[in-house]
Amino acid sequence: MLSYGWGGVCIFCGGVKLSKEHAFAKWLHPHLPMKPIANHEAFSEHILLTHTDSKVKVRSGDPHSGTVRVVCETCNTGWMSSLQEAARPALLPMVQGKRSSLHKRHLQNLCGWVAMFVMVNEWREKNRAFAGVSQEERSFLMENGVPPKTWKIWIGELARPGGIYHHTSIPVAGNGVEVDMIDGIPMPNTQVTTVSMGPLFIHAFSSSYPRASVNQRLPAETMSQVWPIRHSPVTWPPHKPVSQAESVAIAESIVNYGREKARRLRITGNRNPK
Length: 274
Ligand SMILES: [Zn+2]
Known about the structure:
By secondary structure, the chain is an alpha+beta fold. 27% of the residues lie in helices and 26% in strands.
Protein backbone atom coordinates (compact mmCIF):
# COMPACT_ATOMS: atom_id res chain seq x y z
CA MET A 1 0.00 0.00 0.00
CA LEU A 2 1.21 3.48 -0.84
CA SER A 3 2.36 5.25 2.32
CA TYR A 4 1.27 8.83 2.84
CA GLY A 5 2.98 11.33 5.09
CA TRP A 6 5.49 12.45 2.49
CA GLY A 7 5.90 15.83 0.95
CA GLY A 8 2.96 17.58 2.54
CA VAL A 9 0.11 15.14 1.94
CA CYS A 10 -2.46 13.96 4.51
CA ILE A 11 -1.13 10.95 6.49
CA PHE A 12 -4.60 9.38 6.40
CA CYS A 13 -6.02 9.87 2.90
CA GLY A 14 -3.21 11.40 0.83
CA GLY A 15 -5.21 14.64 0.36
CA VAL A 16 -3.19 17.72 -0.39
CA LYS A 17 -4.99 20.59 1.35
CA LEU A 18 -3.44 20.41 4.81
CA SER A 19 -4.92 22.12 7.85
CA LYS A 20 -3.61 22.58 11.38
CA GLU A 21 -4.69 19.76 13.63
CA HIS A 22 -4.53 20.58 17.33
CA ALA A 23 -2.57 17.96 19.19
CA PHE A 24 -5.43 17.91 21.69
CA ALA A 25 -9.08 18.65 20.97
CA LYS A 26 -9.99 22.25 21.67
CA TRP A 27 -12.75 21.17 24.05
CA LEU A 28 -10.10 19.47 26.18
CA HIS A 29 -8.05 22.63 26.70
CA PRO A 30 -10.20 24.23 29.41
CA HIS A 31 -10.07 20.99 31.39
CA LEU A 32 -6.34 20.58 31.40
CA PRO A 33 -4.38 21.83 34.45
CA MET A 34 -4.75 25.59 34.84
CA LYS A 35 -1.22 25.99 36.08
CA PRO A 36 1.01 25.94 33.01
CA ILE A 37 3.60 23.24 33.09
CA ALA A 38 6.92 25.05 32.84
CA ASN A 39 8.86 22.32 31.17
CA HIS A 40 7.32 19.60 29.14
CA GLU A 41 9.52 16.81 27.96
CA ALA A 42 8.63 15.48 24.56
CA PHE A 43 10.75 12.45 24.00
CA SER A 44 11.04 10.49 20.84
CA GLU A 45 13.46 7.74 20.16
CA HIS A 46 14.17 5.58 17.14
CA ILE A 47 16.00 2.40 18.01
CA LEU A 48 18.17 1.00 15.24
CA LEU A 49 20.26 -2.14 15.12
CA THR A 50 23.43 -0.08 15.07
CA HIS A 51 22.69 2.95 17.23
CA THR A 52 19.88 4.85 18.89
CA ASP A 53 18.73 8.17 17.58
CA SER A 54 16.87 10.06 20.26
CA LYS A 55 15.43 13.48 20.44
CA VAL A 56 14.37 15.17 23.61
CA LYS A 57 12.72 18.49 23.15
CA VAL A 58 11.89 20.52 26.17
CA ARG A 59 9.03 22.78 25.25
CA SER A 60 8.08 25.57 27.54
CA GLY A 61 4.52 26.28 28.51
CA ASP A 62 1.45 24.18 27.91
CA PRO A 63 2.35 20.86 26.30
CA HIS A 64 -1.16 20.46 24.97
CA SER A 65 -1.22 23.48 22.70
CA GLY A 66 1.01 22.24 19.88
CA THR A 67 -0.37 21.82 16.41
CA VAL A 68 0.78 19.31 13.84
CA ARG A 69 0.27 20.03 10.16
CA VAL A 70 -0.05 16.55 8.64
CA VAL A 71 -3.78 16.04 8.04
CA CYS A 72 -6.04 17.50 5.36
CA GLU A 73 -9.02 19.74 5.91
CA THR A 74 -11.49 17.06 4.76
CA CYS A 75 -10.23 14.54 7.34
CA ASN A 76 -9.84 17.19 10.06
CA THR A 77 -13.38 18.53 9.71
CA GLY A 78 -14.90 15.14 8.80
CA TRP A 79 -14.24 11.82 10.49
CA MET A 80 -11.58 13.22 12.87
CA SER A 81 -13.88 15.89 14.20
CA SER A 82 -16.66 13.29 14.66
CA LEU A 83 -14.27 11.07 16.60
CA GLN A 84 -13.18 14.00 18.82
CA GLU A 85 -16.85 14.61 19.71
CA ALA A 86 -17.71 10.92 20.13
CA ALA A 87 -14.82 10.43 22.57
CA ARG A 88 -15.77 13.41 24.74
CA PRO A 89 -18.20 11.59 27.13
CA ALA A 90 -15.55 8.97 27.89
CA LEU A 91 -12.51 11.26 28.06
CA LEU A 92 -13.77 14.33 29.81
CA PRO A 93 -14.73 12.87 33.23
CA MET A 94 -11.36 11.09 33.52
CA VAL A 95 -9.43 14.23 32.53
CA GLN A 96 -11.36 16.01 35.29
CA GLY A 97 -10.40 13.22 37.72
CA LYS A 98 -13.95 11.89 38.12
CA ARG A 99 -14.63 8.22 38.77
CA SER A 100 -15.97 6.61 35.60
CA SER A 101 -17.56 3.47 34.33
CA LEU A 102 -16.66 2.86 30.70
CA HIS A 103 -19.06 0.75 28.66
CA LYS A 104 -18.33 -0.83 25.31
CA ARG A 105 -19.25 2.20 23.22
CA HIS A 106 -17.19 4.48 25.49
CA LEU A 107 -14.18 2.18 25.17
CA GLN A 108 -14.44 2.02 21.38
CA ASN A 109 -14.61 5.81 21.04
CA LEU A 110 -11.87 6.38 23.62
CA CYS A 111 -9.49 3.94 21.91
CA GLY A 112 -10.30 5.35 18.46
CA TRP A 113 -9.39 8.78 19.81
CA VAL A 114 -6.16 7.52 21.42
CA ALA A 115 -5.10 5.86 18.14
CA MET A 116 -5.82 9.08 16.25
CA PHE A 117 -3.76 11.05 18.77
CA VAL A 118 -0.85 8.59 18.46
CA MET A 119 -0.94 8.61 14.66
CA VAL A 120 -0.98 12.40 14.32
CA ASN A 121 1.58 13.14 17.03
CA GLU A 122 4.21 10.70 15.87
CA TRP A 123 4.54 12.97 12.83
CA ARG A 124 5.51 15.96 15.02
CA GLU A 125 9.07 15.66 13.74
CA LYS A 126 7.81 15.27 10.14
CA ASN A 127 10.16 12.32 9.81
CA ARG A 128 9.17 8.89 8.50
CA ALA A 129 11.99 7.39 10.61
CA PHE A 130 10.04 8.27 13.78
CA ALA A 131 6.65 7.00 12.61
CA GLY A 132 5.97 3.41 13.67
CA VAL A 133 2.33 3.20 12.52
CA SER A 134 1.74 1.81 9.03
CA GLN A 135 -0.51 3.20 6.32
CA GLU A 136 -2.73 0.09 6.67
CA GLU A 137 -3.28 0.91 10.36
CA ARG A 138 -4.09 4.56 9.62
CA SER A 139 -6.54 3.55 6.87
CA PHE A 140 -8.15 1.04 9.24
CA LEU A 141 -8.79 3.75 11.85
CA MET A 142 -10.17 6.13 9.23
CA GLU A 143 -12.62 3.48 7.97
CA ASN A 144 -13.63 1.87 11.26
CA GLY A 145 -13.19 4.54 13.95
CA VAL A 146 -11.34 2.03 16.17
CA PRO A 147 -7.72 0.83 16.21
CA PRO A 148 -6.77 -2.54 14.66
CA LYS A 149 -6.86 -5.57 17.01
CA THR A 150 -3.05 -5.61 16.92
CA TRP A 151 -3.02 -2.49 19.10
CA LYS A 152 -2.97 -2.57 22.89
CA ILE A 153 -4.07 0.38 25.00
CA TRP A 154 -4.10 0.79 28.80
CA ILE A 155 -5.29 3.57 31.08
CA GLY A 156 -4.29 4.47 34.61
CA GLU A 157 -4.31 7.38 37.04
CA LEU A 158 -1.23 9.43 37.81
CA ALA A 159 -0.53 9.95 41.50
CA ARG A 160 0.87 13.35 40.54
CA PRO A 161 -0.49 14.76 37.26
CA GLY A 162 2.18 16.13 34.96
CA GLY A 163 2.77 16.74 31.28
CA ILE A 164 4.00 13.52 29.75
CA TYR A 165 4.44 12.75 26.07
CA HIS A 166 6.83 9.94 25.33
CA HIS A 167 7.03 8.21 21.95
CA THR A 168 9.36 5.44 20.80
CA SER A 169 9.49 3.71 17.44
CA ILE A 170 11.50 0.62 16.56
CA PRO A 171 11.99 -1.58 13.47
CA VAL A 172 11.24 -5.22 14.33
CA ALA A 173 12.19 -7.86 11.75
CA GLY A 174 12.25 -11.64 11.61
CA ASN A 175 9.80 -14.53 11.08
CA GLY A 176 9.35 -13.56 7.46
CA VAL A 177 8.77 -9.88 8.26
CA GLU A 178 11.13 -7.41 6.65
CA VAL A 179 11.27 -3.73 7.45
CA ASP A 180 11.29 -1.02 4.80
CA MET A 181 14.70 0.49 4.21
CA ILE A 182 15.14 4.12 3.22
CA ASP A 183 18.67 5.33 2.50
CA GLY A 184 20.00 2.28 4.31
CA ILE A 185 18.01 3.05 7.45
CA PRO A 186 15.41 0.50 8.65
CA MET A 187 12.02 2.17 9.05
CA PRO A 188 10.11 1.42 12.27
CA ASN A 189 7.02 -0.81 12.23
CA THR A 190 6.38 -0.71 15.98
CA GLN A 191 5.67 2.21 18.29
CA VAL A 192 4.73 2.99 21.84
CA THR A 193 3.22 6.24 23.08
CA THR A 194 2.73 7.30 26.68
CA VAL A 195 0.76 10.46 27.33
CA SER A 196 -0.98 12.18 30.23
CA MET A 197 -3.95 14.51 30.36
CA GLY A 198 -4.58 15.72 33.88
CA PRO A 199 -4.58 12.58 36.05
CA LEU A 200 -5.39 10.34 33.07
CA PHE A 201 -2.38 8.28 32.01
CA ILE A 202 -2.49 6.44 28.66
CA HIS A 203 -0.10 3.86 27.22
CA ALA A 204 -0.57 2.67 23.61
CA PHE A 205 1.44 -0.04 21.87
CA SER A 206 1.15 -0.97 18.20
CA SER A 207 3.09 -3.09 15.76
CA SER A 208 2.85 -4.42 12.22
CA TYR A 209 4.96 -7.34 13.43
CA PRO A 210 2.55 -10.25 13.89
CA ARG A 211 1.65 -11.07 17.49
CA ALA A 212 4.14 -8.51 18.89
CA SER A 213 1.43 -7.08 21.12
CA VAL A 214 0.52 -10.44 22.66
CA ASN A 215 3.44 -10.33 25.10
CA GLN A 216 2.93 -6.72 26.10
CA ARG A 217 1.62 -6.68 29.66
CA LEU A 218 1.28 -4.09 32.38
CA PRO A 219 0.39 -4.55 36.08
CA ALA A 220 -3.43 -4.73 36.28
CA GLU A 221 -3.43 -3.07 39.73
CA THR A 222 -2.40 0.25 38.20
CA MET A 223 -3.16 -0.03 34.47
CA SER A 224 -6.46 -1.28 32.96
CA GLN A 225 -6.38 -2.70 29.45
CA VAL A 226 -9.03 -0.98 27.33
CA TRP A 227 -7.99 -2.28 23.90
CA PRO A 228 -8.68 -4.87 22.68
CA ILE A 229 -11.78 -4.77 24.90
CA ARG A 230 -11.63 -7.72 27.29
CA HIS A 231 -14.59 -6.85 29.48
CA SER A 232 -16.92 -3.95 30.10
CA PRO A 233 -17.62 -1.79 31.91
CA VAL A 234 -14.08 -0.79 32.88
CA THR A 235 -13.98 1.35 36.01
CA TRP A 236 -11.51 4.21 36.23
CA PRO A 237 -9.33 4.82 38.12
CA PRO A 238 -7.80 1.36 38.72
CA HIS A 239 -7.07 0.19 42.29
CA LYS A 240 -3.76 2.00 42.66
CA PRO A 241 -2.46 5.24 41.15
CA VAL A 242 0.72 5.21 39.07
CA SER A 243 3.74 6.75 40.82
CA GLN A 244 6.20 8.90 38.93
CA ALA A 245 8.80 6.10 38.92
CA GLU A 246 6.22 3.63 37.60
CA SER A 247 5.13 6.01 34.85
CA VAL A 248 8.76 6.27 33.66
CA ALA A 249 9.19 2.48 33.80
CA ILE A 250 6.01 1.99 31.75
CA ALA A 251 7.05 4.59 29.18
CA GLU A 252 10.47 2.98 28.80
CA SER A 253 9.50 -0.70 28.86
CA ILE A 254 9.56 -1.02 25.08
CA VAL A 255 12.73 1.04 24.82
CA ASN A 256 14.50 -1.45 27.04
CA TYR A 257 13.03 -4.32 25.05
CA GLY A 258 14.26 -2.73 21.81
CA ARG A 259 17.71 -1.98 23.19
CA GLU A 260 18.08 -5.53 24.46
CA LYS A 261 16.96 -6.93 21.10
CA ALA A 262 19.35 -4.62 19.24
CA ARG A 263 22.20 -5.53 21.61
CA ARG A 264 21.68 -9.26 21.01
CA LEU A 265 21.50 -8.70 17.25
CA ARG A 266 24.77 -6.83 17.30
CA ILE A 267 26.42 -9.61 19.30
CA THR A 268 25.30 -12.34 16.92
CA GLY A 269 25.76 -10.13 13.87
CA ASN A 270 22.47 -11.45 12.55
CA ARG A 271 20.44 -8.66 11.03
CA ASN A 272 17.53 -10.85 10.06
CA PRO A 273 16.96 -13.09 13.06
CA LYS A 274 14.38 -15.86 13.13
ZN1 LIG B 1 -7.08 13.46 4.68
